[in-house]
């Protein structure tokens, strides 16, 4: 199969869809790999690194899309890429379709087969291709939140860990999934007081078992959320419903209950955000303020640490890329039920129920 790795062109996205190690494995399996010139530079991988393992370097993104049977990338195609995606092509990337009707319609019109990293699902319900980026984003959420709590960044002026004689900052984590647990771990490591909310008691019991005593768990409901937002300095939105829009747990009206300079980091922004006032931002301009509350809603947080993120992503995507390249998408998905859950749009037809629900469309079964 001919596999293409384009340069990411989303604002401040420095990751790349595949490391040279990944390319090496594809070439070893007799596949042709074309990498756009400069695609890996942001992650510390250069054209010669790819050439040394057998890739061919092409200069433009148009050439990559034109020649490739399968595109492997990191983020969803943006508007200027829509016309480049072609009928019969496999596009394997993070899509988050439920948050963008324009992207969904563009991929339907393209006639391509779109396999979304974020909906590949193992038998136990875990999301193996989303997990490493959720781990990165969860940890980063505390780094960024701690920074934006500083007064020059318009935050409350609170040091999360406190100092002797001064109480530590308080962190409220919405969701005890991968993002929430990694955020809680980082916040606890800094010495902050952490409250983590979820509706899944199994997850809360797990958190209670593995976290130190200054991480406390509570059942998630509106009453408890309203209670905690009044006293917590940093709020992390880490709620995920597989393939669907995130529920809005904090309304705009609730911001008035927060103290000026409170910081919200909504990691769920890729799926529409779990805060009503969430709107996607970029690393170039990451925050905005509503009702004196600082919102950090960067839609590609792991893109700020591209080396770590790219290596972590290729570690988990490569086995699936090899299956798709070796067998084609139909045979690969028939044999691998986890991979088949990644099918979102097949040759112009939506086949993932949550997307149809997001836009009131009819699903097609494959």
From TrEMBL:
Protein known as: Alanine dehydrogenase
One GO molecular-function entry: alanine dehydrogenase activity
Residues holding substrate: 15, 75
Family from the record: Belongs to the AlaDH/PNT family.
Broad EC category: oxidoreductase
GO cellular component term, pick one: plasma membrane
Key words of the record: NAD, Nucleotide-binding, Oxidoreductase
Reaction(s) catalysed (UniProt annotation): L-alanine + NAD(+) + H2O = pyruvate + NH4(+) + NADH + H(+)
Sequence positions that bind NAD(+): 134, 198, 203, 220, 239-240, 267-270, 298-301
Residue ranges constituting the Alanine dehydrogenase/pyridine nucleotide transhydrogenase N-terminal domain according to the UniProt record: 4-137
PANTHER family xrefs: ALANINE DEHYDROGENASE
Pfam families: AlaDh_PNT_C, AlaDh_PNT_N
């Amino acid at each position: 199969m001919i596999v293409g790795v384009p340069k990411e062109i989303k604002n401040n996205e420095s990751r790349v869809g595949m490391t040279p190690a990944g390319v090496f494995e594809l070439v070893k399996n007799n596949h042709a790999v074309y990498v756009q010139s400069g695609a890996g530079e942001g992650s510390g991988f250069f054209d010669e690194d790819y050439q040394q393992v057998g890739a061919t370097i092409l200069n433009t993104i148009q050439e990559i899309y034109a020649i490739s049977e399968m595109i492997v990338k990191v983020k969803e195609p943006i508007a200027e890429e829509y016309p480049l995606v072609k009928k019969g092509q496999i596009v394997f990337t993070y899509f988050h379709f439920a948050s963008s009707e324009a992207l969904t319609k563009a991929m339907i019109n393209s006639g391509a087969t779109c396999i979304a990293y974020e909906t590949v699902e193992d038998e136990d319900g875990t999301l193996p291709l989303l997990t490493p980026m959720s781990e990165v984003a969860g940890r980063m959420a505390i780094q960024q939140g701690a920074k934006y709590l500083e007064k020059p960044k318009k935050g409350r002026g609170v040091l999360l860990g406190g100092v002797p004689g001064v109480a530590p900052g308080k962190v409220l984590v919405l969701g005890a999934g991968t993002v929430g647990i990694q955020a809680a771990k980082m916040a606890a490591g800094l010495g902050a007081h952490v409250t983590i909310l979820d509706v899944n008691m199994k997850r809360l019991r797990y958190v209670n078992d593995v976290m130190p005593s200054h991480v406390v768990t509570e059942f998630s409901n509106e009453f408890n959320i309203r209670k905690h937002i009044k006293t917590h300095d940093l709020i992390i939105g880490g709620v995920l419903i597989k393939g669907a829009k995130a529920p809005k747990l904090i309304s705009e009206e609730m911001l008035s209950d927060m103290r000026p300079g409170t910081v919200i980091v909504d990691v769920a922004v890729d799926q529409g955000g779990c805060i009503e006032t969430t709107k996607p931002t970029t690393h170039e301009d990451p925050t905005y303020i509503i009702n004196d509350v600082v919102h950090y809603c960067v839609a590609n947080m792991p893109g700020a640490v591209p080396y770590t993120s790219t290596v972590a992503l290729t570690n988990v995507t490569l086995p699936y890329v090899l299956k798709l390249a070796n067998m084609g998408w139909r045979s690969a998905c028939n044999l691998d039920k986890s991979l088949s859950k990644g099918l979102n749009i097949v040759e112009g037809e939506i086949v993932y129920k949550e997307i149809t629900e997001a836009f009131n469309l009819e699903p097609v079964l494959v």
